[in-house]
Amino acid sequence: MTAMNRITVILSVFLLWTAPGSAGQADTDPERIKPGYPVYSQYLHNGLMINPAYAGSRDALSVLFSCRLQWMGIPDAPRIESVSLHSPLKNDKVALGLNAGLMQYGVTKSQNIYAVYAYHIRLKTGKISLGLKAGTDLSNTDYRGIPGITRPDPAFPETDRSYVFPNAGAGVYYFTDKFFAGFAVPSFLYYRNTGNGRVQASHSFSEYDFVISAGALLTLSPAFRIKPSLLIDYPLNKIDHLNQFDVNCNFIFSDLLWLGGSWRITEQVAVGHLQIQINPRLMAGLSYDYPAGKMNSYSRGSSEIIIRYEFGSRISAANPKYF
């Protein structure tokens, strides 16, 4: 079987699995619980957060840590910490990865951990990667931390309430040295609260989110490059509303300094990016989200830092990676 025939077969299976067969029948159940993923501004440097097919695309064991302070100035606002790692195996066709995260907001803590598998197919130009992820989200709420409650209160249990949400997702990612495009379904399952602290897993095509990303590299000179990109999170159960729509542009100076910005259309948020490639293996970055819309009266914005280190990298000063 040729490489193109393998691609056709695998993509056909993937599209049949993710096709919106009941997109017009959105579930409006108020007890629905749908584990999502937090908003990140540094996803351009950590594609594994939005697409499992990104695994192995950097030709190295890539480890990235991020910490995000969401809506600074609001008491008990979310704090999100995450770590991801991924690497191709020796044959370069298979890559493995791991994502783990911790988010705390108010009296609730949530964690997630996902294993990632990707299979790469080399084309005449670039590669196409097919990725799967599987793992679980966990959520724990300590109602005893809520002030002003007189015990006993039937609305708030005396003990912590914990939930476990196993889930899986998939993605496709195409990349060359000058272009990338990705399509992912972050989660196949959603959950419904059945009462008495119990949840039930459910599946519906109408509950899928489609995460679409694309970008390019424009080389104006060896010392100056431009990297425009976009990200769209399209939920099938909200036909007239996008979860996220970002338009991004980064300016790269001598492959050492990245300066850029994003406009998050759905939230009216302006994002500034700064990344420094300290050496071919080590990168550090900072971003700041300025709320230009309704949140401007309540929040001082959000900030995020990332640190990425790559082991055994084939990347060098003469052969940098931009995606």
SSE topology sketch:
Layout: H1 3-18, E1 32-33, E2 61-69, E3 79-88, E4 94-105, E5 108-122, E6 127-141, E7 161-175, E8 179-185, E9 189-195, E10 198-203, E11 209-216, E12 218-221, E13 224-235, E14 244-253, E15 257-264, E16 269-277, E17 282-291, E18 302-311
Antiparallel strand pairs: 1-9, 2-3, 2-18, 3-4, 4-5, 5-6, 6-7, 7-8, 8-11, 9-10, 11-13, 12-13, 13-14, 14-15, 15-16, 16-17, 17-18
Tell me about this structure.
With 323 residues, this protein is mainly beta. It has one domain (3-311): Beta Barrel (Porin), CATH 2.40.160.40. The protein contains 1 helix and 18 strands. Strands 2-3-4-5-6-7-8-11-13-14-15-16-17-18 form a 14-stranded antiparallel barrel. A 3-stranded antiparallel beta sheet has the order 1-9-10, with no helix packed on it. The chain is globular. The relative contact order is 0.17.
